[in-house]
Design a protein that fits this description.
This protein is 0% helix and 48% strand. It is an all-beta fold and 283 residues long. It folds into two domains: 27-168, no CATH class; 171-283, no CATH class. The chain is flat and about 60 Å long.
Length: 283
Amino acid sequence: MKRLLPLLPVCLLAASAAGTSVPVPVTSSRYDYGIFSPGTTVVGRVAALLAGPSIGAVTTACVPRGTFLDITGPPVNADGEGSDPILYPVSSPSTGTGWIQGTDLAMAFIRIGAADNLLILLEDGGAAGEPRFGGSAVVLDEQGALLDSIPIQLPAVFDEDPGTRTWRYCVDLMPAVADGLGGVTDAVKLALRYEACGYLNSDQLIVWDGERLVPGPAADFVSEAGLFHFEETMILPSDPGGAPNSVIITSTLGEWDDARGGYVTTEEDSRTFSWSGTGFVEE
């Protein structure tokens, strides 16, 4: 028998509703292994602020996309039914206190340009018991209006609980140097981490030319204790060994050698991605 999903609250506001313009805070929430830590984050889409930790609670406000708010405590599983959806206690000067769904929050955010914010969102398209995740990178201006959005690739992650739909990687956005990529004003690396053997980790490049987001190449690394260690390194034009309008990905594969008690390099390779001004093309 299929488990029915709870009826989710709906905010009848335009998706382009203006957000709250505030400086990016010093203490930010982190998305670590499927859970947001207490701290400041950003609402990634128009979200219902609930009076209590239940999907059936009264909606006290519709929080505009782009609003900064503080996560004030640990999450709860709504109505005690598995782990979907997860609600967080939040507070903001513009909306007050309440509870909000974790899927409405940005897993990571960073200020790019003079006033724009780049958000990384998790889109959950799976039915209960059938995890199926996709991500998106979204640029909002300081009023919360959407400037651009692109899909991003998220590594698969296994979960022992078939009823959960929480994506359990750690997510971060790190600034990167855009010098040497013609027309690019900002560059960031999306860091996806899962510190366990056999899980793929990745640094994905995303660039912004003031009007468009463009996905770039990724540098991956994964290892299995006592078997192998695979690591890629991303070389930007401004890095030692870099070249104008190019991103170089070098890779090293090491296999475990019992006699030496360590990994021995068995393969080395490199790939070059040329920046055309509109996208990256592997040579």
